[in-house]
Amino acid sequence: MAVMNHAPTKLNVELKLFCPRRGCPYPQSLDNKITKDGVYTTKNGGVFRQMFYCGTREHRFSETGYCDLFGKHGSFKEYEQLCKLSGYGLSVDAIADVLLKDPRTIAVWQRGVSKKASVFHNVMCLSITLTVLFIQMDELWSFLRNKNSQLWVFVGFEVDSRFWMNFELGSRTTHTATKRVTRINHYLGKLSRINPLKVTTDKLAAYKNALQSVFAEIDYVYLQIVKKRIKIRLVTVKKCFVKGTEDDFKGKTQNTSYIERFTLTLRQRVSYLQIKTVGYCKKKANFTDALWLNLYDYNYRCHHKSLRLPLTVPSVSRFQKKWTHRTPAMAMGLTQDALTWIFLFVMPILVTR
Ligand SMILES: [Zn+2]
Predict the structure, then answer these.
(1) Distance 27 CA to ligand 1 centre (A)
(2) Could you report the per-residue pLDDT of 172-231, keeping only the tens digit for each?
(3) Checking CA distances to 48, which of 143, 211, 218, 296 falls within 20 to 30 Å?
(4) Distance, CA 57 to ligand 1 centroid (Å)?
């Protein structure tokens, strides 16, 4: 990992510096000689920004050039505040009010961060073969403008690391489910594993079809949890082993509880998913942006309480540190430490414009 100004943390993937300037002949060439060339601050932000020097074309560029926020007239602090407020379930209008900006400006910033977050997530998941043992999948109901046009959010989640693998927006059909499962399949690589991959979902038939067509060459076992409700009261829970037997699902794996708790977190954190409010989605692109921001926040930035590991040092005083905290990405082996928002902004990854 190249040493950067705002990089106190480490990735398990090596990223090389490159020149992000449009028209530069060697944008991705690795022998492109990039050197550090001083720092600067902007008039509305106290955070230092790194300047680099591009040796082939003899010009300077700012680390902000690595993301779509370049020339968007905000400070790093404001960008960071936008991301955090968005993660607390605030709408674009509310954030605009807090930061004293125009809602359109906030939407543009959010688009910039979301693009970078999606590219980053893909680069990470495709560079390292993920250790996936147990996937749970679910879909969240939502709608676009009015309740007649339904919009479902399909989410996939690796249980042991609590890693949110990806999401897909669309209708509640096999088509959307297949798109999502195909993406998961890309992340898995071609490793043969000793234990079959465990998959649990609810009773939606779309998953069965999607798994059958996409996971044809993968050894997997599949369990459907069929819940029957009368009005809202849960009456029965039936386990339906579609592929594999009860012996394949040992311990606390015969459920969809983890993903259900996770979808609750999402409803809390994405303003468009809060039901019985007027905060519903009016534009699909904004919905995608909010989800990507949350994916970065959840996977790479926030510690997950259930992933903490006890420290083996014998305790001397009661103020001594007892745990090492981990993010889902750390548990998955993608990063060494929790990342920050600024780290995402200046990371040298090409975002196609
Ligand atoms: Zn250049």
Answers:
(1) 7
(2) 888 999 998 988 888 886 555 667 888 999 888 888 889 988 888 888 889 998 888 888
(3) 296
(4) 5
| Residue 213: inside a domain | yes
Interval between CA 335 and ligand 1 midpoint (Å): 29
Residues 6+ apart with CB under 8 A from 353: 22, 68
On whether the pTM is more than 0.85, the answer is yes
Cα distance between residue 272 and residue 282, in whole Å? 9
Is 97 among the domain residues?
A: no
Residue 107 in domain: no
Q: Identify the weakest region by mean pLDDT among 13-27, 270-284, 303-317, 337-351.
A: 13-27
**Which amino acid appears at position 156 of this protein?**
G
Output the CA 40–ligand 1 centroid distance in Å: 19
> 352 or 266: which carries more pLDDT confidence?
266
Domain that holds residue 147: 128-281
Q: Is residue 305's pLDDT more than 70?
A: yes
Cα 250-182-287 angle, rounded to 5 deg: 100
Residue 117 is predicted with a pLDDT of 94
Look at residue 29 and tell me if it is in a domain: no
C-alpha separations of 12 from 127, 200, 214, 251, 343 in Å: 9, 29, 29, 31, 14
Write the CA distances from 114 to 21, 87, 99, 179, integer angstroms: 20, 12, 19, 20
Question: Mean pLDDT, the chain, as a whole number?
Answer: 85
From the CA of 35, how far away is ligand 1's center (Å)?
A: 11
How many domains is the chain partitioned into structurally?
1
> Measuring CA to CA, how many Å separate 309 from each of 42, 109, 116, 259, 341?
41, 36, 30, 22, 24
Which CATH number does the domain housing residue 152 bear?
3.30.420.10
Specify the pLDDT at position 238. Answer: 87
| Separation of CA 348 and ligand 1 centre (Å) | 13
The stretch 328-340 carries a mean pLDDT of 91
Pairing of strands 220-230, 197-201: parallel
